[in-house]
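Exercise 3.2. Students should predict the tertiary structure of the chain below and write it as structure tokens, then compare their answer with the key that follows.

Predict this chain's 3D structure.
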Amino acid sequence: MQETQSLVTIIPWTFIAQILNLFIQMYLIKKFLFKPINKLLSKRAQLADKEIKDAEAAKSEADGLKQQYEEGLAKAQAQATQIVQDAQKTAQIRAEEVVKEAQDHAAAIKAQAQADIEQEKKKAVNEAKNQIGGLAMDIAGKVVEKEIREEDHKKLIDEFIENVGDAS
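Answer key:
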């Protein structure tokens, strides 16, 4: 059993050396392995955070540009609608002006025609009066068969014309 005990026994100097060896290994691993790995992981985390921030900034910028584009599109549509409405109003006003001009022109032509008709009517009445006056003188001369003075003759013609004018 002693042999077994010699295997299980702890030698204090060996135990202390092993513990010191363990601490030295831990220190070396921590210094040369964990620190660089932690630095690398920290850099990667910072890089990932930076890329996420850049992506968020790009997304917000894209959202802003999208909003500006939509506002510009809405303004353009509003302007197009306004232009169409203005063109329709202008066309309506121009159409009304053309119709009014045509009506005025037609009224002027009608008034001129009416004036021409009145003038022709007066001319025809005057010609008829003159012819009737001449005929009346011939008839009166034949009926009376006497000589009438020139003044009386003109006076009779004027009276006859006035009576014919009043009758028409």
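Discussion points: The chain has a mean pLDDT of 85. The longest helix spans residues 12-144.
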